[in-house]
Structure prediction request, 328 residues.
Amino acid sequence: MPSLSPFRVRPWFRPMVWGTRNLAPWYDKVVGEPIGEVWLSGDTSVVDTGPLTGKTLDAVFHEHMEDLLGPTVHPQERFPLLMKVLFPKEKLSVQVHPGDAMAREHGEPHGKTECWYTLEAEPGATVALGLRPGTTLPAVQAAIEDKTLETLLQSVPVHAGDMIFVDAGTVHAIFPGVVVLETQQNSDMTYRLYDYGRPRELHLKDGLQAIRLHTDAGTVQPKMEFGDGAQASGASRELMVQSKYFRVDRTRIANANITEDFSLPARKQSQTGSVQLIFVAAGAGALKSQGEEPIQLRRGELAVVPACAPDWSMTSSEPMEILRAIPE
Ligand SMILES: [Zn+2]
Prediction:
């Protein structure tokens, strides 16, 4: 039996001024303050199953780094990826995240490249992603002073199932009308450029330094890895995004009582494995790895599969959609 088994993580609810009190149908938590973010693999997230129940992910990471990430991975300061679900009821601030180099200048281990998987989108929903072509940094600075920064941003329509890549340096904002699964480098470095007059602090000097006028941000076209896409034959898998820091794939299981194998892609198998983060976006099922008790997972929940236990499968109890993130 491997020294570290897969485990489910307890969601951690983070209040935000732009959040909501209604997290249905994702979470049935009754909340007083508006919740903006539900952290699923944060440092303070707590293990919810197995012998490590009650420990924080950060503690597990430091005690079991090699089992978790694989023996060939160079030591890291933090669990590599943060996944969270965002519930914007109002606009999120217009913001930018630094890249690795700038983050290190500020004493942080790495910057923040992220991606957004759209779990829900109302008709006509949009996000703001990057600057309009031809925008200069002085124009950005002037627009911040005039409170017209929103007019310089590119608007991108979003639909349920879309994957949007947001590399560090991209000016962006998420707007109401969506529920988003965010996968990111595990960093909380955010520079707020404009906040619609809300009283929160802005970070203009650092923010302007972090901005890149041209980035690779945008909607990513999924690549079918197997299955027919129409999901008539049980299961299909698509690569949703591949970046320097993470890959995310989406598996759809069309029926109940299907057991789908989740062995890692061939490129990963040639190495010694890597940690896998498993998020259930629809349905419910049981995650099974060799010699272990199955872990029950339902919509909105996340499990961590350590590198030392790379072979596992999911048995659906109803049709499922599963997002898997693997650090690079
Ligand atoms: Zn962001």
Remarks:
- The mean pLDDT is 92.
- The helical segments are 57-63, 65-69, 100-105, 137-146, 204-210, 266-269.
- The pocket of zinc ion is lined by residues 95, 97, 114, 172 (CB under 6 Å).
- The chain is about 10% helix and 40% strand.
